[in-house]
Specification:
Radius of gyration: 18 Å
Structural class: mainly alpha
Helix content: over 70%
Mean pLDDT: 79
Shape: globular
Largest sheet: none
Number of domains: 1
Strand content: under 5%
Number of helices: 12
């Protein structure tokens, strides 16, 4: 039981880091263009992150692990290894101010930890494995691994996860905010509005068509697009290239780190 509590605690740490790591998705343009001051921006973002609990729901989150990983190979060490891999990669990309997808990091960590235990046989290659790249995964992880026999995600799990995400958002990942808001290109208020609006429409359209996209990737791409409308040289392509490399490396890097974490845990903790 103490080990299970430790896993839940680490999951909430991931939620918190997810909040400050991905806060740039919603506030980078309005902070970079000085439409709102940083405190007001993160307050609004944190509030609406929590409101999402009552409006978005967790229908997709509850499918995590079903059709992605063969559950016969899943144990507490696989779960914890996946979380540690995702947390480590998120902290690395935050340190270098690179916007990357926390969801992709978690998927990579989850898969890498399972592969470390059972090889590629642990992966169930199918549509659900791809669909999960779009969504935040924390409530689903807790539901699937901590409450496997439940038919729905308990309210306390949902509330706790969203509270931690909101608290993380309040702290703001300012390194990433700076990259997205001012280092990729110089934004004016109208440009920031266009980037956020274009990104929102792209996300809505992709969701409608059932195409998996990352919010981080979408907003960053929209910012690059706005900068390029002035002139191509207005975009700092060196920084944009580093960001793209971070996107490409996210899943395998988080997977490798999770695999290492699993190997250490499997030797230290006998289940």
């Amino acid at each position: 039981m103490p080990y299970v509590i430790a896993i839940v605690f680490i999951a909430f740490i991931f939620d918190f880091i997810n909040g400050f790591h991905d806060s740039a998705n919603s506030i980078a343009t309005i902070v970079g263009t000085r439409v709102l001051n940083p405190f007001t921006a993160v307050l609004w973002a944190a509030t609406f992150n929590f409101v999402a609990l009552f409006t978005v729901g967790t229908a997709v989150a509850s499918t995590i692990g079903k059709g992605m990983i063969d559950v016969s190979f899943v144990d507490a060490n696989v779960i914890l290894g996946g979380l540690l891999g995702a947390i480590t990669w998120n902290l690395i990309t935050w340190f270098f101010g690179l916007p990357s997808s926390s969801s992709h990091a978690l998927i990579g960590g989850y898969a890498g930890s399972a592969i470390a235990k059972a090889g590629l046989a642990a992966i169930v290659w199918g549509r659900k494995w791809i669909e999960t790249l779009v969504f935040r995964l924390e409530p689903g992880l807790l539901h699937h691994f901590y409450l496997q026999s439940a038919d729905h995600i308990p309210l306390w799990v949902e509330v706790a996860a969203y509270v931690m995400i909101s608290l993380g958002t309040l702290f703001g990942g300012w390194r990433i905010v700076h990259t997205m808001g001012s280092r990729i290109t110089r934004l004016r208020p109208v440009g920031g509005f266009c980037a956020e609006t274009g990104g929102a429409f792209a996300i809505l359209l992709a969701t409608r068509l059932g195409i998996p996209v990352s919010t981080t990737h979408t907003i960053t791409g929209a910012i690059v697009g706005v900068g390029a409308t002035h002139r191509l040289s207005a975009v700092r392509w060196g920084i944009a290239g580093r960001i793209i490399w971070a996107w490409i490396l996210t899943i395998p890097a988080a997977g490798i780190m999770a695999a290492i974490a699993y190997q250490v845990l499997s030797r230290a903790v006998r289940l």
